[in-house]
């Protein structure tokens, strides 16, 4: 009788652990401190996963939560990643660059690759978590072992923030749905810090730069009851505080869903 009672107590303990998310539940980690622009070269630890097609750029539409399209093409070339909270920073980490390397798995080359943050993943599997494109994840492997490394699914990596080295100038895409009372603009191809923390707009009818609101990802918007009139100049502030002005970069004849090239770059 005592033996049966002991078994009942033990079973009750197991059931309680399952209900309360005991030892059977995966451990969750709070996010680490935000990664800043100190560029001190120090390697930090992270967990890495991958998504999408094995040799793809991540999302099936080659986009992501930053709003940047065609990340399979230059300058991103599919070397993209989702970042968790301290990397993605609710979109203000969009475009930032990281060197990543893996050394623990026998398939790992140990050589770093550089990835762009173009998407988000807030799964709490580690204080720092990169969800790579299949192409980027496989590129961490020794020659010929790309697929074998991808089969591991999840692994430990080392990473550090680096300055983005890009050719060409900064580009602005006027988003679909924009009109004289609602102007939404995506910024891409940003060198150096790679990410923008403030975008300001100056229109012809009302001189002086006015702050835009971050809409989502790398998209900033300007809402106004009084219609704005182009051409528009845009002032950018990068995460390290550097400022640049793109004068009259969006013309008076602007149209939604149109990309405009600037002549500026950090």
TrEMBL record:
Mind listing the GO biological process terms from this record? Answer: cell wall organization
| Localization (cell) | Secreted, Cell wall
Show the Pfam families listed in the entry. DPBB_1, Expansin_C
The signal peptide here is 1-24
Q: Name one GO cellular component term.
A: extracellular region
Keywords, A to Z, come to:
Cell wall, Cell wall biogenesis/degradation, Glycoprotein, Secreted, Signal
Domain named Expansin-like CBD: which ranges? 181-262
> SUPFAM superfamilies under this entry?
Barwin-like endoglucanases, PHL pollen allergen
Q: Does the keyword Flavoprotein apply?
A: no
Taking every annotated instance into account, which residue ranges of this chain make up the domain Expansin-like EG45?
A: 63-169
- Note the InterPro entries from the entry: Expan_Lol_pI (IPR007118), Expansin/allergen_DPBB_dom (IPR007112), Expansin_CBD (IPR007117), Expansin_CBD_sf (IPR036749), LolPI (IPR005795), RlpA-like_DPBB (IPR009009), RlpA-like_sf (IPR036908)
Q: Which domain of life is it from?
A: Eukaryota
Q: What is its main location?
A: secreted
Asked whether the UniProt record includes Glycoprotein among its keywords, one would answer yes
UniProt xrefs under PANTHER family: EXPANSIN-B3 (PTHR31692), EXPANSIN-B9 (PTHR31692:SF7)
Instruction: Return the similarity comment.
Output: Belongs to the expansin family. Expansin B subfamily.
Q: What is this protein called?
A: Uncharacterized protein
Please report the organism this UniProt entry assigns to the protein. Answer: Sorghum bicolor (Sorghum)
């Amino acid at each position: 009788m005592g033996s049966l009672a002991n078994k009942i107590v033990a079973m009750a303990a197991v059931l309680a652990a399952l209900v309360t998310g005991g030892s059977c539940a995966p451990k969750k980690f709070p996010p680490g401190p935000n990664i800043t622009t100190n560029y001190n070269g120090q390697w930090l630890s992270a967990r890495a996963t991958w998504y999408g097609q094995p040799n793809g750029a991540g999302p099936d539409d080659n986009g992501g939560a930053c709003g940047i399209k065609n990340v399979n093409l230059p300058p991103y070339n599919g070397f993209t990643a989702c970042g968790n909270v301290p990397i993605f920073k609710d979109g203000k980490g969009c475009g930032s660059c990281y060197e990543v390397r893996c050394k623990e798995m026998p398939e790992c080359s140990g050589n770093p690759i550089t990835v762009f943050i173009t998407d988000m993943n807030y799964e709490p599997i580690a204080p720092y978590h990169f969800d790579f494109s299949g192409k980027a994840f496989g590129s961490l492997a020794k020659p010929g072992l790309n697929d074998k490394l991808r089969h591991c699914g999840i692994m430990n990596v080392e990473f550090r923030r680096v300055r983005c080295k890009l050719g060409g100038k900064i580009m602005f895409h006027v988003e679909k749905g924009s009109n004289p009372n609602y102007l939404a603009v995506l910024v891409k191809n940003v060198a150096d810090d790679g990410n923008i923390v403030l975008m300001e707009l100056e229109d012809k009818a009302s001189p002086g730069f006015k702050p835009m609101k971050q809409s989502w990802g790398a998209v900033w918007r300007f809402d106004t009851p009084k219609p704005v009139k182009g051409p528009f100049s845009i002032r950018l502030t990068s995460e390290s505080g550097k400022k640049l002005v793109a004068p009259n970069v969006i013309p008076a004849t602007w149209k939604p869903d149109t990309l405009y090239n600037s002549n500026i770059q950090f």
